[in-house]
Structure formats: C-alpha cells, structure tokens
Write a structure and sequence with these properties.
397 residues, alpha/beta, 2 domains, six-stranded parallel sheet, 17 helices, 13 strands, elongated
C-alpha cells in the first residue's frame, strides 16, 4: 500500500462552511484521518446550499469534504462535549471556526484542551482573528473582500467595485491554515509540544494583495481598477477576437517582439513608443486600440496557434465545461470520479498537490450526515451498541 504524507495523523474537524472544511480536506488528501463533527439532524449548513444537488447533497458541500468521516455530535449537551473532549485528547490536529469564545464554556477551547493533550495543534479560523479591536465581529468572505481591498481593485476601470467569482478569501485562509498546521506538525517533532494557530480571513485577504499591496506601500498611491488589464505590464489583458475572447500575457520585451512578428506587425516592436514595457505602459492608450483592431481580424484558434508557434503566452477564456474537458485538466487528474453511497458516483475537482514519493489519495467521497458515527464511537472510544443507542435516544449523537 502506498504511504501518504500524513498517515497516522488524526484531525478533529469542528469547522463548517468552506475555509475550515477545505483545509481539513487537504489534510485528508494528504493521508490524515479526518473526523468531521456535525450537528445531529442538521449537519454542516452547506449541505443545503444549493441547487445544484447530487444524491441529496449540495455541490457546495461536496466540493470540500472528501476524505473525511462524519460524526454527529450535540456540542450543547454535556454528553456530546465529553465525547468531543475524549476524541480531541486522541487527536493531533483540531480545526474550528466558531465565533471568538464560542467554545470556551464547553471546555473545547485551546487552553482547556491543551491541559489534556499538550501535543494538540489547535487551528482557529475566524473573520478577524483573536486579537485587535474587531476580533469579536463576524466575518464572511464577501464582506472581507470589500474591507480587505480586493473589490477596490477588481472590476472595470470605470465600473463598480466587484468581488472575485469564487470565495477566494475562504480558500486562501484554508491554504494558509493548512501551511501553518503542517509547519506546526514539523515543529512538534522537535519540541514535543502542540500550539494554537490563529488564522483570520482579513489577514489572508491582505496577504493576497501581493504586488498590488506592495505597490501601494512603496508609492503611497492608491491603486485603480484595471478590469482585465494590468497596471504595470502591457499588453497583459483580454482581447476580443473574431469569434470570442482570449488572453495575451506579454511578460518581457522578447515575447513582445516575437508576438509582433507572428502577428505580421513587426514594425510595432521597433516603434520607440512600444519597444520596451515602460514605453508600452506609457502609451497604452495608443497601443491597446491598435491591438483590439488587430485581434478582431482572426479567430481565437488562429491567434492561439500563432502565439504557441512563437512561444508567446496566450490562452482562451474558457467556460467551466471547457475547463473540465480540457485534455491538460484530465491529464493532471484535476477531474476525478468517486463512488458515492446515494449518487452512485460523484465528480469532483482533483487536488493540485502532487508528491512523487508519497502521493495524495482519493480514499473516501464526501460523507453522508453521521455516516461514520457508530464506527468512530466503537473504534476510538470502545462504546458498545447499547451505549450508542442510548446516546442516540438522548439526542447526543
């Protein structure tokens, strides 16, 4: 059997929605055993965030919950809390995204669990983190995109502020959380101690500003929205061809020269207004209309072939049916099909984590609500059938 990177690591996932579950799914893809805790009879709210639905589950839920086992547990009941504490005591990692202080009264906060499991790595994901004047405020992806500056730099130049088309802040927070958890696991090997990880959506979004944030910090100039263009690279944007849109992404002057030759306008590369990127940026209002007229003369397919032959970065603007049918997508395993207990099969986006010696594995489809409750209570806590039946009767599970 192929060894996975996180074989033997146990993750106790108290999170819901997207950021926490996406982080836990990545750990599951890497081989960790993930127990997803859900409210009895209700489950993760995203199970109902549809349409579309498949096999009774929403596509939203399915996107971030594979390679997990589902345990229903009432965390407002003393019996449920006791079970959660016992499972946390056996876990390597705990992930939660409750409101700040929401787990304190139940004894499932970091300080309490550290007493019974000093090796526990406890990851909290929240809107604004555990410090700062707004740490108690709720936070969701959309509002964080606004507060964190994303929407001020997204959209057409003279248009309204626009959010990114996917919950990118949640996904970024998941990635940062996963990185921090892996680092904490490595640190534990050296120190023997776990630690608390504090991930904020706002922090994650500000980190994603990358070069745009750095440009402001260096210049003091507030960036504008550039639509599909780039503030400091030209041409680096979308264009309308004869039949559809495509992207031209010129990253250096050599690529520009090759493009001009392939496009039959080699004189443009020698024009002092366009010969270098700084000059192209300075004269974008002249150059871009010229390029728009040029691109309308041929189809997307012809332009892409000319650019490929000239080793110039260019690509189509694909709808998702084309993305998931793309031979490159399929060759890279980014569309996977898994068996599913109520839908026969479920198709999911694959994982971009490719490790040669310890590859990721698609072991389990997103679980049904409470699908593994009895298995977990029997296998990890040693409860017998009667004890489990009593817990179910009392509304604990």
């Amino acid at each position: 059997m192929t060894l996975s990177p996180l074989d033997g690591i146990h993750v106790f996932d108290l999170s819901r929605h997207l950021a926490g579950p996406y982080c836990a799914m990545m750990l599951g893809d890497l081989g960790a055993e993930v127990i997803k805790v859900e409210r009895p009879g209700v489950g993760d709210e995203t199970r109902q965030w549809g349409p579309p639905f498949l096999g009774g589950e929403s596509a939203y839920y399915l996107c971030c919950n594979r390679n997990k086992k589902s345990l229903t547990l009432n965390l407002k009941d003393k019996g449920g809390i006791a079970i959660a504490q016992k499972l946390a005591a056996q876990s390597d990692v705990l992930i939660e995204n409750f409101r700040i202080g929401g787990l304190d009264a139940s004894g499932l906060d970091y300080a309490s669990l550290k007493e019974i499991n000093p090796r526990l790595i406890y990851c909290s994901i929240s809107g604004f983190g555990h410090t700062g004047p707004d740490h108690e405020l709720p936070g969701y992806d959309f509002m964080i995109q606004g507060r964190g500056g994303f929407m001020s730099i997204t959209g057409e130049h003279d248009g309204a502020p626009m959010k990114v088309g996917v919950a990118i802040v949640d996904v970024a927070a998941a990635l940062f959380a996963c990185n921090a958890i892996l680092a904490a696991l490595l640190a534990r090997e050296r120190t023997g101690e776990g630690q608390h990880i504090d991930i904020a959506l706002l922090d994650s979004q500000i980190a994603l500003l990358a070069n745009v944030g750095s440009s402001y910090l260096c210049s003091g100039e507030v960036p504008e929205r550039w639509g599909n263009a780039h503030s400091s690279i030209v041409p680096y944007q979308g264009f309308r061809a004869m039949d559809d849109y495509l992207i031209l992404a010129i990253g250096n002057d050599g690529q520009w020269e090759r493009f001009c030759t392939a496009a039959g306008v080699s004189a443009w590369a020698a024009d002092e207004r366009f010969a270098t990127n700084p000059q192209r940026v300075a004269h974008r209002t002249v150059l871009i209309p010229m390029l728009e007229d040029l691109f309308r003369q041929r189809s997307v397919a012809e332009w892409l072939q000319r650019c490929a032959d000239a080793d110039v970065p260019a690509g189509p603007v694909n709808s998702l049916d084309k993305v998931f049918a793309d031979p490159q997508t399929l060759a890279r395993g980014m569309r996977v099909e898994m068996p599913h207990p109520t839908a026969e099969t479920v198709q999911l986006a694959g994982t971009p984590l490719n490790l040669s010696g310890t590859p990721t594995q698609m072991r389990m489809p997103p679980p049904l609500l409470g699908e593994h409750t009895d298995e977990i209570l029997t296998g990890l806590l040693g409860l017998n059938d009667k004890a489990i039946a009593d817990l179910r009767q009392d509304g604990v599970i």
